[in-house]
Structures are given as structure tokens and as C-alpha cells.
């Protein structure tokens, strides 16, 4: 215990705080009888030095926009952040630490954004947190480039992340680190807890990378601290990282899991199991702690808490003064900043969104989206985004935006490289920093970014995913590129809005929904191929999309059969409706671009669209049939794809797979017959 040798008061206080963090973690996990005590015990000095000497934050206002960000990517070590938050003066009383992992507590098993004040992002799925931190560092660079003016530096924060071996092994951290190094994000510091222990045992079982060499090759500034308990060395390493202005920094810290536990230190048992009462007593004795005291926060640690609160107050006060001066000098920008931070848009932000005229030949979903995107971009400066190397295909480039590149951070078009997983996690970090961020790719590769999409949904943050090439409509590229189960698998994610517009005007409406969504991420599903632009004078307005599903075309009097579809298949329903009309069959066409929005409508509205008395129904979607039964009922018919696609020209595929007007008409007759049995 090197610090035990030191005698001056500040060292004593440091040691006391560090041991408080350790023992709170041990006690919290023991009381819950579940959790991960070892890593908080090992990293207590690291977190303490970082928070006490480096982190600019205000415990009394966790939302202060220019705060430094701290991300515990090793989310299982959550008692570390809960103890730090409590000790640093955040609104997280000791009672909450005692209720670790219990129903309704603010101390869930893994840190959750929006639940615990001071938690910047939800972590637990390893690698996601550090990848989010790259998004936060990117956002900081962009915000600084966009908002700062000479003599007015209102954005200048840093982003710190703590990663374990697990984070380092996960591919997403490597994709994100590669991009961070390329972009020269010197505002980013990762601390790697090099403790050689994971769940199954020593990392030697599965991991022998030279992490330092790997990060050096990613153009990172790599530093080493040989002992996690050496607070002086940690201090120096962090200072060195702050001086670096060309590269992100990685501080590799050698630590011992469950440091100080006589029988559990350096064992995988200490990773994810309570230490046990006896081991806790022995460990506390070693720390010079009263062995039987539980959740002890010594009175003396208040000196640190007070200091942390006071510093936070001061640092925000100074910033508030500089923001006031900024507001006087640059009222327009200050207004933008305030709106953005409140999650609002500019006034008349949608004034340039075009209306598309009826057109049989039509427009591809992706092309219509590009027009709408550019129209919105002209009035919402903090709408920024890009693609995983597919912008020419996804049509997500902002023509006036410029490129976000190393050293040229004002550009609005981002190049994530072919790194879908990291793109998703980076978008989460960007959205958490309040910019309106979008990322695009082929729908088929949404599978690569499913984990971050799930997390943006869990966090209820409005990330925008633009997925094009939405079905077998892709044609010749074949089954590897033809989404089948992707749309339904996205619909399975709670809180995510999945919108598959049927024509250009529905695309425009979808963007309206997407831009005004504050608490839901949106997946916009667009076609590669042209879709006829529906004649809205003849049929209903596209604004019906806001209800998720709406009556597009109707019969006189009660219809006998309801035809419903999304995206490229809606046109089949419209054509079938017209044909049935000539045969004297009364049908209704329902456009169903967003199931989630439809489900949010009241029963009365839903019944007015899908009349309960009409049991003859047909649903058409060029994806899997799963889920449609809910809307068709047992007598309904579903035209969908139950197997993978194939490589052939689109027209041939549609014929082979039964996506034709004739098949829809046939299915309608079939369903009508079924209801009469
Ligand atoms: C993506 C993902 N895969 C698996 C897990 C389950 N898991 C939680 S912690 C852990 C081991 C992590 O080891 P390390 O990062 O070294 O943490 P330490 O043992 O040092 O606490 C695993 C596999 C997870 N949380 N996320």
C-alpha cells in the first residue's frame, strides 16, 4: 500500500476517499448479493484521481453542457461510478447505494442514462461505452468548430472513458479507436484497466494482443502506468494526455482485480461475485478500515465532497459568464445553442421541405430523402451525419455541408468508414451531446449495428438511422444484400420507430416525424428503386403517416376487403384496389408505414382504419411475414417472403416471389371467400 507511507493531510484524504469507494463497492455488491466488486476496488484510485484533479463537471448540475464526459465502458463495474457520484456530491444518496440492483433504485446493475444523475450513457454491453465516447469527442470537435468564435470559447470539454479487457477485445472498440486516431481526436482519453482477468480466467486464454502497439498504429498517444495505486503516476499520465494536441490518448494501467482482498485478489471470482462477509472483513482490515462497518462514509471525506461541489459551482459559473458575453456578441448562435440543448429545432425548420407532384414513374425513396434532407439541413445547422462508406448509394450527403475531417471539424458530412457497428455507437455518443445525428447504410447491414440501435432505444435518444436498399428490390446483388427479416427485427426493438414510406411524400412526412422525435430513435427504411408518387388529389394526404397507418384509398360505403402494405408494395395494393373496383368488389387501401406510431393511436382511430367488421384483409410486404397476422387476422392473407431472396433482375424477382397486382387481387378474393365459410 504505497500511499500508506505518505503522511500529509491531502494524501490521507485521498487514501480515505479511495478506500471509501472500494468499501462502498464491496458492501453494495454484498448487500445485493450480486454484482462486480473486483474492478471498482482496483480502479478506485484511477477514478478518484481523474474526478478530483481533472474532470470539469458540476455535481449540482449534471446537465451543464460544457462538462467533461466520463464514460464507464466497463459497465459491470457500476459500483465504481455510483460510489464516485455519491462521494462527489451528486444527487445520489447513500440510501441508493444500499439499494444497488433493487427494483426502483437509481443504482441499476449497469449504468443507465437518464436514470442516475451523472451517468452519461448506458453501458454494460462491452465496447459500446468507449465507442460512444468517440461520438462524444467527435461532437465536441464539431460543436467547438461550429459555435466557438474568437475570444468566445464556449465549447472545450474533454471525454474520458474507462475500458476493461472485455472492451478491448470487442471489435466495436477497435473500429471506433481506428476512426478516433484517424480523426486526431486529442480531446479523448481512454484508460485501459489492464488486469488480465475476465470471467473465464486469465486473459491469456484468449487475448495476447500488444494493445500498446495496436493503438500506436491507430495513431494514438499511448502511455503506461505500472501500478493503479500510484496516484502520482496516474496524475502525471493524465497531465501528459491533456498536453497532447494531435492524438487521442490511451493510458494503460496495470491493476489487480479486487486489490487488497487476501484470498480473492487477481482471481476471476472477484470479477462477478460478492466477496463474502469474511473476505470483506479481512479486506477492510487490510485497508485499515473498521472491519464490521458497512457503507461507511467517514466524516472526513466531506472535505472532498465539498471541494468537488465548490469546484463544480465555480467552473459552471465561469462558463455561464462567458456564455453571457457570447450571447451578447453572437445572439443568433447563442439562440441556436440553447435550442439545440433543449432538444428543439429552429423556427420554421421545415419550411423548405418539398411537396412531390404525382408521378407514375416516380422517385426512389433514397432520392426523395436526399431532397428532404438537404431542405432541412438548410435550416437546422446542427443536423449532421454520414454513412459507412455508402453515401453515394444511400444519398445522404448534404450538398452544402462540407466534410468532417481531421483538423477540419466544421464539416457536416461524416465518413465513418466501413464500420457500421462503431457508426451506431458513435451516433449514440453524438446524440447524447445534443446534435441531431444520422447515420446511413444498406438495410441488410443494420444487423451489424443492432447493439447500438438497441441502446439508443433503451436510452430513448433520437438517433436517426437511414437504411436504404430495403428489400429484394435490390435485384441483382442477390440474397446477401436483400433484406428479409431486417424490418421485423427492427420492429422488435422497443421504443424504436421503424418507418417504411411508400412514396416521396411519405418520405417527407417521415422526416418530419424523425426530426421532431425527442425520445425515440427512428429507422427510416428507403427503397433503392423508384416508387410512383401517389396522386394525393385522388387519394388521401401523406400526412396520415403521422398516425402510423391511414386510409389511403376507400370504397363507397363499407369496404368488403382491406388491402394494406408498406413501402414499395403499397403501389400493388392501390393497383389491386382499382382492379377490384372494376370487378365490383369494394376495397380499402391502408398505408401502414409505421406500426409503432399506429399502435400509439387510440382504439377508436385504429378501428376506423382497420374496421373490425371487415375480416377479409390482405397485407403485402417484401420482407418476412412475421407480425402481419396481428393486422390481417386469421382470415387474412399475407403476401411476404418466407425465404431468402435471389440474384436476378428486379422484375423477374417480383414475378417469381409473387409480388404482383394479380397475386394481391387473388389473395383478396381468397380472403373474402374464407370469411364466408
Ligand atoms: C458484449 C458483451 N459480451 C459479454 C458480456 C459479459 N461480460 C461482462 S463482464 C465480462 C468480462 C469482462 O472482463 P474485463 O473487461 O476484463 O472486466 P474485469 O474482469 O476486469 O472486471 C463479460 C464477458 C458483456 N457484458 N458484453
Gyration radius over CA: 28 Å
The molecules bound to the chains, other than polymers, are: thiamine diphosphate
Biggest β-sheet strands, sense, barrel: 6 strands, parallel
Overall residue-averaged pLDDT value: 97
The coarse silhouette is elongated
Structural class: alpha/beta
Reading side by side through the largest sheet, how are the strands ordered? 10-9-11-12-14-13
Helical coverage, percent range: 40-55%
Given as residue ranges, the uncertain stretches (5+ residues, pLDDT < 50) are: 1-7
**Percent strand:** 5-15%
The end-to-end distance, rounded to whole angstroms, is 83 Å
Number of helices: 25
Question: Any overview of this molecule?
Answer:
The chain is an alpha/beta fold and 677 residues long. Helices cover 41% and strands 13% of the residues. The chain contains 25 helices and 20 strands. The strands form five sheets. The chain has a six-stranded parallel sheet, with helices on both faces. Strand 11, helix 17 and strand 12 form a beta-alpha-beta unit. The chain is elongated and about 95 Å long. The N terminus is likely disordered. The structure holds thiamine diphosphate. The site of thiamine diphosphate (TPP) has 21 residues, from helix 2, helix 6 and strand 4.
Amino acid at each position: 500500500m504505497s500511499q500508506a507511507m505518505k503522511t500529509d493531510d491531502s494524501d490521507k484524504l485521498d487514501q480515505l476517499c479511495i478506500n471509501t469507494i472500494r468499501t462502498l463497492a464491496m458492501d453494495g455488491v454484498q448487500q445485493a448479493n450480486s454484482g462486480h466488486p473486483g474492478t471498482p476496488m482496483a480502479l478506485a484510485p484511477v477514478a478518484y484521481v481523474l474526478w478530483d484533479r481533472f474532470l470539469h463537471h458540476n455535481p449540482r448540475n449534471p446537465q451543464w453542457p460544457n462538462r467533461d464526459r466520463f464514460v464507464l465502458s466497463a459497465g459491470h463495474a457500476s459500483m465504481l461510478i455510483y460510489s464516485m457520484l455519491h462521494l462527489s456530491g451528486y444527487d445520489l444518496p447513500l440510501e441508493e447505494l444500499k439499494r444497488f440492483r433493487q427494483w426502483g433504485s437509481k443504482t441499476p446493475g449497469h449504468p443507465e442514462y437518464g436514470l442516475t444523475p451523472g451517468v452519461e450513457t448506458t453501458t454494460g454491453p462491452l465496447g459500446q461505452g468507449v465507442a460512444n465516447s468517440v461520438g462524444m469527442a467527435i461532437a465536441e470537435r464539431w460543436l467547438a468548430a461550429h459555435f466557438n468564435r474568437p475570444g468566445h470559447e464556449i465549447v472545450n470539454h474533454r471525454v474520458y472513458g474507462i475500458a476493461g479487457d472485455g472492451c478491448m477485445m470487442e471489435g466495436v472498440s477497435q473500429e471506433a479507436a481506428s476512426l478516433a486516431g484517424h480523426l486526431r481526436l486529442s480531446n479523448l482519453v481512454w484508460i485501459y484497466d489492464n488486469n488480465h482477468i475476465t470471467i473465464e480466467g486469465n486473459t491469456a486464454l484468449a487475448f495476447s494482443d500488444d494493445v500498446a502497439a495496436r493503438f500506436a498504429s491507430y495513431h494514438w498517444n499511448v502511455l503506461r502506468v505500472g501500478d493503479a495505486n500510484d496516484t502520482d503516476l496516474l496524475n502525471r499520465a493524465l497531465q501528459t494526455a491533456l498536453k497532447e494536441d494531435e492524438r487521442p490518448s490511451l493510458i494503460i494501467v496495470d491493476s489487480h482485480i479486487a486489490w487488497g482482498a487476501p484470498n480473492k485478489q487477481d482471481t476471476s471470482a472477484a470479477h462477478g461475485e460478492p466477496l463474502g462477509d469474511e473476505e470483506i472483513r479481512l479486506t477492510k482490515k487490510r485497508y485499515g478500515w473498521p472491519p464490521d462497518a458497512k457503507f461507511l462514509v467517514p466524516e472526513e471525506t466531506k472535505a472532498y465532497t465539498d471541494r468537488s461541489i465548490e469546484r463544480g459551482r465555480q467552473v459552471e459559473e465561469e462558463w455561464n459568464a462567458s456564455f453571457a458575453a457570447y450571447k451578447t456578441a453572437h445572439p443568433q448562435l447563442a439562440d441556436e445553442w440553447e435550442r439545440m440543448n433543449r432538444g428543439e429545432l429552429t423556427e420554421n425548420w421545415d419550411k423548405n421541405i418539398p411537396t412531390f407532384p404525382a408521378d407514375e414513374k416516380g422517385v426512389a425513396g433514397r432520392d426523395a430523402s436526399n431532397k428532404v434532407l438537404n431542405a432541412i439541413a438548410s435550416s437546422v445547422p446542427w443536423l449532421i451525419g454520414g454513412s459507412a462508406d455508402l453515401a453515394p448509394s444511400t444519398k445522404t450527403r448534404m450538398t452544402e455541408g462540407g466534410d468532417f475531417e481531421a483538423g477540419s471539424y466544421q464539416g457536416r458530412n461524416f465518413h465513418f468508414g466501413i464500420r457500421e457497428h462503431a457508426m451506431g455507437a458513435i451516433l449514440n455518443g453524438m446524440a447524447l451531446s445534443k446534435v441531431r445525428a444520422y447515420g446511413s447504410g444498406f438495410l441488410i447491414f443494420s444487423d451489424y449495428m443492432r447493439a447500438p440501435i438497441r441502446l439508443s432505444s433503451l436510452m430513448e435518444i433520437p438517433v436517426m438511422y437511414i437504411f436504404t436498399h430495403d428489400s429484394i428490390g435490390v435485384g441483382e446483388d442477390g440474397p446477401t444484400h436483400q433484406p428479409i427479416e431486417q424490418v421485423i427485427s427492427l420492429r422488435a426493438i422497443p421504443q424504436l420507430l421503424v418507418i417504411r414510406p411508400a412514396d416521396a411524400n411519405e418520405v417527407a412526412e417521415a422526416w418530419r416525424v424523425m426530426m421532431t422525435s425527442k425520445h425515440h430513435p427512428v429507422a427510416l427504411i428507403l427503397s433503392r428503386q423508384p416508387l410512383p408518387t401517389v396522386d394525393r388529389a385522388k387519394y388521401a394526404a401523406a400526412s396520415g403517416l403521422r398516425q402510423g397507418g391511414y386510409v389511403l384509398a376507400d370504397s363507397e360505403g363499407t369496404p368488403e376487403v382491406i388491402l394494406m402494405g408498406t413501402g414499395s408494395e403499397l403501389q400493388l395494393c392501390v393497383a389491386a384496389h382499382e382492379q377490384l373496383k372494376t370487378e365490383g368488389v369494394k376495397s380499402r387501401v391502408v398505408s401502414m408505414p409505421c406500426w409503432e406510431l399506429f399502435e400509439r393511436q387510440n382504439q377508436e382511430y385504429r378501428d376506423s382504419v382497420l374496421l373490425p367488421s371487415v375480416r377479409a384483409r390482405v397485407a403485402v410486404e417484401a420482407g418476412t411475414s412475421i407480425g402481419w397476422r396481428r393486422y390481417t387476422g386469421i382470415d387474412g392473407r399475407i403476401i411476404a417472403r418466407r425465404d431468402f431472396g435471389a440474384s436476378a433482375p428486379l422484375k423477374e424477382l417480383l414475378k417469381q416471389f409473387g409480388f404482383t397486382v394479380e397475386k394481391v387481387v387473388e389473395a383478396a378474393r381468397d380472403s373474402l371467400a374464407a370469411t364466408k365459410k
